[in-house]
Every structure is written in structure tokens, then in C-alpha cells.
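2024-03-11 09:14:02 INFO receiving multi-entity request
2024-03-11 09:14:02 INFO entity count = three
2024-03-11 09:14:03 INFO echoing inputs for audit
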Amino acid sequence: MYFLKRALFLIPLLLVITFMAFALVRLAPGGPFDNERKPASPEIERNLKAKYHLDEPVWKQYLRYLGDLSHGDLGPSLKYRNHTVNDIIRQGLPVSLTLGLLAFLIAQGIGIPLGFITAVGRGRWPDYAGSFFAILAICIPGFVVGPLLIMFFSIRWQIFPPAQWETPWHAILPSFALGLFFAGRISRLMREGMTQALQEGFIVTARAKGMSETRVLVRHAFRIAVLPVVSYSGPLLADLLTGSFVVENIFNIPGIGVFMVNSSLNRDYTMVVGLVLLYATLLLVMNLLVDISYGLLDARVKYE
Amino acid sequence: MSRNLTPNQRAWERFKRNRPAVFSLIFIAALLVGILIWPMFAPYKPDQMAATQFQPPDGKHWFGTDVHGFDLMTRVMFGARISLMVGLVGATVALVIGVTWGAVAGYLGGRFDSWMMRVVDILYALPAIVFVIVLITVLDTHVKQWIVDQFGSSAGRYTRTAFLFVGLGAVSWLTMARIVRGQVLTLRGRQFVDASRALGANNSRIILHHILPNVLGVIITYVTMTVPAIILYESFLSYLGLGIQPPMASWGSLIAEGASQLNPIRVYWWLLVFPATALVSTLLALNFVGDGLRDAFDPRAG
Amino acid sequence: MDALGNDRTPTRSNLMRFCLLSTIFLLAVSLLGCGKKEPRADIVIINGAEPQSLDPAIITGQPDGRAAGALFEGLTRLNPKTATAEPAIAERWDVSTNGKLYTFHLRKNAKWSTGAPITSEDFIYSWRRVVDPLTASEYAGQLFFVQNAEAISMGKIKDLSQLGVRAIDTHTLRVELNAPCPFFLDLCAFRTLSIVPRAAIEKHGDRWLLTPPVPTSGPYALESWRIRDKIRIRKNPYYWDAANVQNEIIDLLPIDQQTTALSLYTTGQVDIIWDKGLVPNELLDVLRNRPDMHTFDYLGTEFIRYNVTKKPFDDPRVRKALALAIDKQRLVDKITKGGEKTASSYTPPGTAHYLPPAGLGHDPSLAKKLLAEAGFPNGKGFPNFIYLTSNTKTSVQLAVEIQEMWQRELGIHCEIAQKEWKVYLTDQSELNYDVSRSGWVGDYNDPNTFLDMFMSNNGNNRTGWKNPRYDQLMRDANQITDLNRRAELLRDAETLLVHDDLPIIPLFFRTGVNFFDPAKFEGIYFNLLDEHPLWPIRRKR
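2024-03-11 09:21:47 INFO inference complete, emitting structure
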């Protein structure tokens, strides 16, 4: 019941978010058609604005936008004038989804075991070595890792292609460049969750009852320990699935991550709002799923 | 352990026994002192151009020089001020707003939780760049004018930095709130919480004395992750025009500059290695200190 | 509740099953997402930023122009070597003695890529479309030399047929100009004036370029266009000069990251890089010695604008002092490194039918003297001011160097305000700055493309500088047919700009950079417009 209500609440929430984005992006100085060289006459600028209804009051533009949105039309891109926002998302989203999922799996696949090991070996060398790696991953941003990977794996050893998105081989370096950063963060959260879980009463009891150590760690401690990772993973997955600006740029991947940033810089109003809508939907759904999984992982969680 | 110590003293005793944590604390203290007294000993001024650009590290320029011939070591030392300040602000905002918000939402649950978390969702979903750009232009022109009128032109100089902190603060607390709220949700159904409620403790007492100590570990962990993220985020904000302006530099902008030198033809490695090392070693130390504090203040330890 | 177990636990096998399922799902998605690899094109070129459009009437950027230029052609085209107009769809033309009436004779064998003939009606449609307010063409100004074009674009004349271009018959076209225009034939080669397919546009609207087949009038047809991924073009067999098109398939990659471009080039995945923005300045000292790097001059100027409405920059002595204090040679040696030539004039040398006047050089002692005369001996009393710049790396580095020069030579201090691109443009347009980094690239080879922007009411002036004499000189120059007299008038105007009144400081002329192995490719030439048509490029056997 609680989750049903939450799900219904998504729609008004999305409307609020789109309207705020709609208004905010119009507050920013400069418009989509301001370039280094101005058109020969101010009338040309006026024609441009009129063509895209930018000369109307904002509320009227928003109503028009909602009207189009109701039949799934996100409007024309104001920067890429031959494309609609739907065109761009249709083309870029599958790419970003693939890359994001791969990176997410890498982040979890490395982060969770690493956090597990560092927590169990807390205060000893596995902890120090693992923590060092994790903190390195946290501090070194994608715009450093990406070029480093390219320099070694593509140019020196020529194992993977340096950029583009054509074969599955092309996906490997970017997914690692993107995943490693989050692997570090997840491992830190996992380590903390695990440390705490190991101090829980029922774990101590289980150990006292003579349960095998692996069974205690995997079956009981793990489920409680993973909770901080779960709450972090909701927004993280929404972030990853909608692409990464840095990694898509470095590896020239035709996803939507670059548009997420560039549309704001270009003041491509329709594009900004369309992408915010997409991102917000994902984010809200993910967070809903996170809350549901909370109840599944830890029976003590109640929402009402 | 003697019986008549206060909890804080006992925590301090425990902290002192954690060798990596103590060592790291000394490192951070030394770094702070070094940064503060550096201008007195610095051989170069931050805006002093040497004759040679891209000079590799040598006896005169320990960290080498950059495109303008600025001494990189000087830039790293001066950049530390900005970056550490930014990290501190980000961490504080995350701690104060994020933890409070998350703890209250998680503890109260139900409708409060829903509304408070939806606010977080909305702020998280809005495009940060646009937010920053609007912040710069709307605030920088109007508020700056107002402040200059009220307090004179010298105050105007600090408005940009103040807005930088607003911009940073706006984003740094959101994920913290989510994580804390998640932890609190699992805690509030526990027996010890029910017990203290039965004993007549009010909500704020329960949150402060029973819930927060139990999420301290997660909070500390997340703060140590927020600090580098914020330090790097600052360089992005500065790039958009909010924050520090060239020729001033921060660790974030120095790392970004160094990263742009990674190419297949020739790499000026020192431009990346030194600022990155500064950030990584500071963060390592911060993590060990955080870990030590966490263990020392753990309610279940000792 | 039992402390140990609770029945809702997902068992380990459940977990395993989840992992397995997600792995399978992932593999499926990655295979779908990646798709199959296309065969390699004959030539792969890194073309710069993703084009905003490929519609000749809409495009404004250089990368857009290179791609659209391969697809669509006009009455004339630019010679690949000299970048001067040569016959294209028009095989010859007559000009009236007053220089205002052009009669173009179209080729009988000119065809669309669908095989349909190209007629004078196609030109009339395409040109009317450019000036039609509904098209919202930013470059409509390129047609303002044609009679009534400006009035139609401004909405003063509603009837599109009033535009000064008429069909005499299916293959003869008459164009009437407002005033003689010595560069009109060059303009006819400009992308905006290319012809576009009426039926496709009327049927598909703004998405016409995404709906194959796209009828094209140029040497190539559009095979596929995936945004931020690849533009693939294929030789148009119906092109009138198809016999001389030297290649079959070309890929244009939209890449604007320097390291990405270099990595792809180094690993042999691309053949050509053309855009100076794609090569890091700091590598140019190494790269310039390589046989595959080519630098050349083109019509682009880097300069600084003054906001002459603000004190103390309303005083020409102050403006001159700041200009004289800048060591331009050091800027190009230390920062840009592309062999750029320092600028004392605004119009680059080599601009057709013109010799630019000499402006100010580097003279710190004179600069100090002028500043003292203006009331600021040794910079005393000079207010701190704002140096507005965009946030591109080179612009910021130039700002830091110039800041230091002014501080050292004149004792004055500016604060650098590095702004995000659109904020920078807005601040510049609204004169919300003191001095500002600027750049300009010529559209066509004539001084007018540089000089008309500083007329009082031009939207690209952005200095607040209004000089009636300058306006008069420019207007006079563009009314006469005698090229020598015209050059004199323009030179007088530019002297005001770069010597007498100085609302701008020219810094240096830009250098173009191309990357390709001359042992493998031929047919790429270097010219003042940085134009490199695709059709003559050939891979050597």
C-alpha cells in the first residue's frame, strides 16, 4: 500500500521537477541562439525565437510543452536543429544504458568483495592494502583514469581500441574508467556496513552458537552490511544509466551523458528539460526500489 | 582502563592506541601548519613567472613549472588552502544539513520521511550546472551590488567565495541525507530505541543519544568520501566561473590541468603527479583518522 | 523475531540466480548496444564538434560547414587550392557594367543525387527559404546584398517573390544586387547559398536530413548520421563533376577532445585531423617537426575588446598604453605555439584586394608615457579592472600572460573573470566588462567580413565604440566599383580602428592545423579560408 502510494506520487513529483528545470534553465543568462557572431539583424534573432515559441511567457511555453509531452513528444532540440529530443535520446540511451550497467556491475563486483575483505581483515594488511586502493580510486577522477587507461591499454600495449563505440571490445576501457571510481566508494561503504554488522548482537550470538564463520559472514552479516551500499546504489544507478559526461567525452561514446552537461551549457532548453525528465524518472524509480529492498533485506525496517 | 574516565576521555585513550590514526593526525596537522607558514618561507610568489615553462622538477623548482613558468610547488601549497577550505565546508554542510535531514526523516518516518526525501530527490534531479550558472549571475550581480552598497567594496571581494560555498553546499549533503536516513530506518525499529521511548525519552534525545552514535561509522565514512569529491567538484565550478579565478589554482584545477597533459606524444608528468599525490595522501590520512575516531567513539566498543 | 534467521531471506542460490540472470541480460544488452561493425571508410576524418545541423541554411559553425559543403553546392564552389570562386552548378555568368546584375547559366547536366535535374527554380526556392523569417536562418545576412533580401528577412516585405532573384528559363538565373559587391561570386560558394531539395524539406520539416534518401546537390550523398558518433557520406554518382571525385566513402567523426583525437590518430583509426582546437598547444613544438603536421595561415584574428563606455577606457591614450604594453610575440611563442603571426592590424594580411594598415607594436616605454599623460603615472590611481574571458584553456592562459604583462610594465592590475561560454557572450554583448578576449574568423575573403562589424549599430561591435567617420567610410567603400579606391577607403577605416582610436587590440592571426600523412594522402590544400573540400582528397596507392 505504502509503495503503491509512492508510485502514484511519482507523476506530480515529475511535473514539479520538470517545471523547476524549465524555469531555471530560462533564468540562466544567454539563450540557445546566442553565438560569438550575432545574426546580421536583430529581426533574425526574433524570427528564431518566434519559431520555437520562446517569445511567449514561460507559463504558456510550459503548457505547450505539457501538451506535446502528453503524446510523448519532448520537442525539437534547439541546438541540434535537425534532431528532436526524442531522436537524440532514442539514439543515445541504449548506449548509455549498456555502459552504465557494465560500470555498475564492475563497481559492485569490485567494491563489495573489497569492502568485505577490508572489513573482515580490519586493522591488518588486507585492510591497509584494500583501503589504499579504494581511496586511490576515490581520489583519482575519471578524467585521469580514462586517459591513463588509453595510454597503456590502447597505445602502449594495443589491447583495446582507444575510443568509439563499435564492438564489445570498445566497451571495456570506458566501463572500467567509470566503474573503478565507484568501486572505491562502494568498498568504503561496504567496509563500514560490515564492520558494524559484525558487532551486531545476533552475529555474536551466531558465532557463539558455533556456526561456521563463512556462513555467519555471508548469510547473516552480509545482508545487514549491504544496506548503506543499497541506499547509495539507487542514485548511483540512475547516474550511471544516464551516462557519464567525462567518460563519454574521453572515449567518444555516443551516449546521452555528454548531452546531460552540454545541453545546459548550450542552453538547449528542450533538451535540458527532456533529459531531466528522463533522469528524474529513473532516479525516483530507483529510490523506490531501494526502499522496497530495504524491507526485504532487513525485516526491522517499517515505513509507516 | 581506569573506571573514572569520562566517555570522551576513554575514546581519546582508545584513539591514541591506533597507531596509523595517530600518525595520520600528525601528518594532517603538519600539513596545515606547513600551509599556513609557507608564505613566510616560499622562494617564489604564486604569480611569479620563471623564465622557463614546463621545467621538469630540479633543485630550483622541486615540483617543476607549468605553462606560464609558475612554480608548481608554490601552486600546490597555495592551492591547498582553497581545496582544504572547500573540503571543510563541503564536509560541514554534509554533516550538519545532511545528517540532520536524514536522521529526522528516517526517525519520524511515514509522511515526514516521504516529503523530506522527495525534496532531496528534486534537488538531486535538477541540473547542477544550470543551478550554478543561475547562482553566479543572479546572485553575483544583485547580491554583490547590495553587499558592496552595505558594507563597502572590500566585502564584495568575498562574495564570489561565499557563493562558491553555497554552490558546493547545495550538492554535498544530498547523498549523505539518503544514506543516514536509510541507516536510521533500520535502527528505529530496534529494541533499544523502543526501550528508551518507553522510559520517556523525547524524540530529539533518542536521535542524539541512541540513533546517531550508531550511524557515526557510516557518517564518518561518507564524509571522507565527500571531501575529495567536493575538492574535485570545486574545479568544475571554477571552470564555470563560480569560485576561484586564474591565475589562482586549487588542487582540483591543478589535477584537471595535469590530466589534460596525458597524451600519446609527450607527457609533462609532474603537472599531474604532484597535485594528485597531495590529494591522495591527504585523503589517506583523513581516512585513517576517520577510522580511528569511528572505533574510538563506537558505542559498542570498550 | 528470531535474531538469526528470518524466512524472507533470499537464499544463496537465489542470489546466484540473480547474478546469472543479470549477467545474461547484460551480455544481451551489450551485443545489442554495440551492434555490428560497418566496413571502414576510404578516409576517416576527425571533423571537430558535432554539427548543429547539416542544413546549409541553418549551419553556422566550421565543422558543420565542412560536412554540409560535401553534400550541398551552390552556383559557384571554392577552388580547393586557392579558395576562390570557380564555376560549379553555374557553368558561366555575366555581370552588368554597374556590378549590380548577375546572370548565371546553369549546367544542363547538373543533377540531384536522386537523378532529378537541377533547375533555376531550385535556386529560387533555396534562396527565398534562407531569407524567409519562418526558416530562422542565422546566416540570412549573407544574402542581404541581394535586392529586398533584408526587407523580407525583417518582415517588412511579406511577399517572398520580391527577392531579387528571377528565373529567365529553367537554366538561367538573374540576380539583382543592392550595390556592387566585389566578393559576390565568393558568397555564391558560401554554404548558406547552396541549393536544398524542396520536396524533401516540405515533406519532413526540420527532420528532413534524418529521413533517407536525402537528395543532395553536392559531390556526396548522406548515407548515415548518428549524432555524436559518425557522419558517413558516399560519392554522389549524379554529381556533375563526379569523374573528379577521388574517393567513395568518407566518415566524419564528431570529436572535440584533444587527447581522444590524438589517440585515434596515433593508433591509425583515423586518417586526418583538421581543427587547431584538436591539437594541444603544448605539443606543437614537437609536432611541428613531424611531416604529417601542416600549419598554415588563415583569415582569423585573436584580439581584445575594450569597453570604451567605461572609465578609464574611454580615453584612447589608456587604450593605446595597454596595447603597447603587450608583448604579442611572447604570447604566440609561449602559449599558442602554432607559428602564429603577431597582429598589428585587425584584417589579416593576404585578404583579397587589400593591404591592411600598420597598427601599434610593442613599446613599453611609450606605453608608460601614454598612461602617465592620461593621469596614471606608473599606474598610480588606475582602478582594478575586469578581464573577461571564455573558459577555453588557451584563452585563459593568454589572459594570465597579459595580466602579468600589464602588471609588470604598467603597474596596473586586472582581475580575470573566466566565464562559461554563454555567460561570457552575454556579458560581452551587454558591455558588462572592462576588457575582453575575442576572436573572429572571416566568412569570405574580403576585408568587409572583418571591418563591417565595428560599425556603430552592428550587433558584433560589442565595444560601445561609435565612430561616425568609420561608418561613413565603410558605407562609401561598399558603394563603389573601383577596387583600388575601395581598398583605400577601407584602409582609412581600419586605421581608425587599429591606430587612431583603438577600441580593440589585435593580438595575433590564427594558424590552421591539419594532420595527415602526406605519403598516404594527397589533394588537401591550405588556403586562407581554412577550406578543404573533400572531393579532391585521395589515398595514394
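2024-03-11 09:21:48 INFO post-check: Chain A is about 75% helix and 0% strand.
2024-03-11 09:21:48 INFO post-check: Chain A touches chain B through 64 residues (CB under 8 Å).
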